[in-house]
Prior knowledge:
Blueprint: H1 4-24, H2 27-40, H3 45-57, H4 61-73, H5 77-89, H6 93-109, H7 116-132, E1 139-147, E2 163-165, H8 167-172, E3 184-186, E4 192-198, E5 204-211, E6 217-222, E7 233-238, E8 244-249, E9 259-266, E10 269-270, E11 274-275, E12 286-292, E13 297-302, E14 310-317, H9 332-337, H10 351-358, E15 377-378, E16 384-385, H11 394-425, H12 432-460
Antiparallel strand pairs: 1-14, 2-3, 4-5, 5-6, 7-8, 8-9, 9-10, 9-11, 12-13, 13-14, 15-16
Amino acid sequence: MFSTAFLLSAYGAPVDEARRLYREGSYEEAAEQARVVVKRSPRDGNGNFFLGASLYRLGRFDEALEPLKQAESRSVAEAAQLLAEYAIDRYMVDDAESHLDKWASILAKAKKDTPAEHAALSSRLVMLRNMLGRVEKIEIVDSIAVDSVRFFEAYRLSPQAGRILPGEALNSIGATAGAELSTGYMPENNSEILWSASDASGVFELYGAGILDDGTLDHPAALSGGLGEGGSAMYPFLMPDGMTLYFANDGENSLGGLDIFMTRRTDEGYFVPQNMGMPYNSPDNDFMLAIDEATGLGWWATDRNHIPGKVTVYVFMPSQMRVNADPDDPNLAAMARLSDISLMQNPETDYEALLASRLPEVKAGDSHGSASPRFALDMGNGKVYTSLSDFRKEAARSAMLEYLGAEVLLRRHLAAEEALREQYRRGDTGVASEILESERKTAEMRKRVAALRNSAVRLEF
């Protein structure tokens, strides 16, 4: 006959193991351990929670719901939290409110404080309700699943719309040394550049600078106005009017992750950013909205469809005046989530023909709006390369980017060296040793620049 202690140990072990595996992120193994508990005791709150939560983390939502609801009915607070998150992510506002109330009730009965996460989800629910009340009825032309790292190459912008620059191009013109960079933007006239870079804590901020005749940046500086709203601000796009700025941030007015915002700049700074609402934004990351007035097409990217390693780029037709969907439309949530883009299309329009007629012609080596820094490189065979897209070999292109970056650093170093010489000419002989050290470094930098230039040519051929 088994003792009570033995029975408790035998029944408790799988739950404890499921708990440990779940906390470690081993969700498959945690689910298997939790199944043992649930099979033996179908109404066990902890067993159902770790089973449902593990399946939830694995993205197997349909399987996760039933055990999570069982755990919630057994007063497991974390189950109510996950169910509230699930409902918010699917725009099920009434269900989300019910689960949030249940969560608070469970905690109150246990005489526990309501955590900050409850207030954050409640705030998101309020924002979700407000956004669902004014879903813009835009016309979606196409949706494209693309690699998340080079997503901007799917933006087929006309020259009039300017260019989206990848991070390596920003590095090559000396945007922000040593910082992680996202994409930047340069208008058609190449007069300025906007980009975002992270600080030591990983928070991104928007920067801007004019571009001098030699291609270097004139007084790079952070944009004013607190555009990140307490979070990161990234992915800028400036309209041809030079004032309307689209960007993304994950600050206090974001529904979740990055949301797309719009602001306008003046001589004094920027107006308070306005959230673009739905369907542009979602509880996931939405970013890099670009509008091409020449083609009458707009673009933005999102990871709302949860495709591993990819994001979805939506192509749409911007309108001069915002028209919102009927709040009582039974398809409102589907339109807001873009779960069925046919709801945002005109059945009489041939969108394939529309794209063919409006998109700029794709040339060999063209990167669809991503920009290269300006240069003129004599390749020694009668050809002069003026763009990174001229290079056929990826290794040569990378060497060219290094060369351009090293050249910018050399110019800056020479300017600082000349400033030291000016100090010496004015009588400050104490800088003599600094000048000698600077000259030594100049020689090293010149050798590196020459080597990188030769490497680019050599690797191309």
